[in-house]
Design goal:
237 residues, alpha+beta, 5 strands, 5-stranded antiparallel beta sheet, 2 domains
């Protein structure tokens, strides 16, 4: 798939633009419905859900029911794993949740692929695509679908964090991009540029570029000084 199909989401500037691009990509893969959710863990086990989706209107209330999501085997898998899940009716039947699948199946949500990216500071990005038809049984086709979705998720989470939950900045603080902040957070954890690139799904050179840009914006001479200043300004925790 052309690189532009993955990177176009990075140029989105508004919630509507982000949703349009996510829906476009899902349909390009052959899926009618899609949900992209940014989950932010707060203190005392509280979690904030900020998302975009094109869920059918009549199914919207059930889709947004948090008590339902606590039982949903697909959501529970994403909560605990970074490995994508390919699901269908059997996924629910094995958990004794056949009626839950039947309810969503009436709205064309019969099978799909879902995955989660678990990031620093208690942030998670969940991306799921669904459709009325079964997932292909050909292993090569399935592997391609999953790989495309994973690569798109890496780009989409960057846009989602920037648009749906922009990081607060101290008055007069330099405006760092979400990716620059994220590379600084991982640098704070002692990761090298190569390791940061592996975590974020970008090249070592790109990771180093983000750190260098952040260092320059903060007026620092090296990445260690940049991390300390970012901490002091409250840009990272």
């Amino acid at each position: 798939m052309l690189e532009s199909n993955f990177t176009a989401v990075l140029s989105t500037r508004t919630r509507d633009e982000l949703q349009s691009e996510v829906v476009r990509f899902a349909k390009h893969l052959g899926f009618e419905t899609v949900a992209a959710t940014l989950v932010i863990d707060h203190h005392l086990g509280q979690a904030e859900f900020i998302g975009i989706d094109n869920t059918p209107h009549d199914y919207k209330e059930a889709f947004e029911d948090t008590t339902r999501s606590r039982r949903d085997p697909v959501m529970q898998h994403c909560k605990r794993n970074s490995v994508p899940i390919i699901w269908d009716q059997s996924t629910y039947a094995k958990q004794g949740l056949g009626p839950m699948w039947e309810e969503q199946a009436r709205f064309g949500i019969r099978s799909g692929i879902a995955m989660a990216l678990h990031m620093p500071e208690g942030r998670h990005f969940v991306l799921g695509v669904d459709r009325d038809q079964p997932i292909p049984t050909d292993s090569v086709a399935v592997t391609r679908l999953v790989a495309d979705l994973q690569l798109f998720a890496v780009h989409a989470q960057d846009a989602a964090q920037r648009i749906l939950a922009p990081a607060p900045s101290a008055p007069g603080a330099p405006a760092l991009t979400p990716r620059e902040l994220e590379t600084l957070r991982w640098t704070m954890e002692g990761k090298t540029a190569w390791e940061v690139g592996s975590v974020l799904g970008i090249s070592e050179r790109t990771a180093a570029l983000h750190v260098n840009n952040a260092t320059h914006k903060l007026g620092c001479v090296n990445k260690h000084q940049a991390v300390l200043k970012a901490l002091r300004l409250g840009l990272i925790r």
